[in-house]
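Hi all, long-time lurker, first post. I run a small reading group and we've been trying to get comfortable going from sequence to structure in the token notation. Rather than ask abstract questions, I figured I'd post a concrete chain and ask someone more experienced to write out its structure so we can walk through it together at our next meeting. Sequence below, copied exactly:
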Amino acid sequence: MMRFTILCVGKLKEEYMRKAVADYATRLSKYAKVEIVEVAESDIPGEGDALLKRLAPGSCVVAMDLHGKMIDSPALASWIAQKTLSGTSHFTFVIGGSDGIDPRICQMADLRLCLSPMTFTHQMTRLILAEQLYRAMKINAGEKYHK
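-- Answer (accepted) --
Happy to help. Here is the structure in token form:
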């Protein structure tokens, strides 16, 4: 079964944000196993060390990076489908903290992905990413998505 890990810095403090991410994780679980792993906030090298320790060997790593590639939802769905066809079953999406993402993660990532040229909080990035993964899986399943 396909597996998505969202590896991120910090905890979601607002209840509404926790509920929204949990809602999309539940929806996404129809298509893939979903795991959200949080590491403590600190400075970038410290966060980077903690994130690197939690990366599963063999996982396809996607760094959520303001300087990464911008793609639309169908292109994300297509990329996931292509990687899956080539044997990838575990994707790890890494979200850095307030000061960004450790360059070591960007260097070793299979894809550096930018959600928008606008800057989002790392909490908002988690929510947007969860929604986009759900949307991608709906697209790949040939299902309509209106939310």
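A couple of things your group might point at:
The first strand starts at residue 3 and ends at 9.
Strands lie at 3-9, 33-39, 60-69, 90-95, 111-113.
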